[in-house]
Amino acid sequence: MPEDEPQLQQFISRVTKEDLYYRYFSEINEFTHEDLANMTQIDYDREMAFVAVRRIDQTEEILGVTRAISDPDNIDAEFAVLVRSDLKGLGLGRRLMES
Predict the structure, then answer these.
(1) What does pTM read for this prediction?
(2) Of 57, 68, 63, 58, whose CA–CA distance to 83 is shortest?
(3) Which pLDDT score is estimated for 99?
(4) Residue 51 backbone dihedrals phi, psi, to 5 degrees
(5) Distance, CA of 21 to CA of 18 (rounded, Å)
């Protein structure tokens, strides 16, 4: 959802450049507002995202995201998982894949 953009930006700031490279297969220095908007505004006919969050008091923080995006004819799809770098190795990525 568009209102998730600040949390998404905070999540991305806690992912190393190396982990972003492995996720996007290119060097990413910064995500623009348009990039973040595209990530938070999902076309449910072709995209799905599951987000792992932790709620502390009245705020939520994103811990990891899994996303599937199909091509226009719904034959092939890209599937990706991204977990906050400091939380790797704890099984969160596996749990997101099982979603």
Answers:
(1) 0.88
(2) 63
(3) 77
(4) -125, 130
(5) 5
Q: What is the CATH number of domain 2-98?
A: 3.40.630.30
Question: Residue 55 to residues 11, 72, 81, 95: CA-CA distances in angstroms?
Answer: 14, 35, 21, 18
The tokens for 48 are 């799905």
How open is the CA angle 56-7-49, to the nearest 5 degrees?
105
How many helices and strands in the chain, by DSSP H and E? Answer: 4, 3
Residue with tokens 């894949």: 97
CA distance 87 to 91: 9
Coil, helix or strand at residue 41: coil
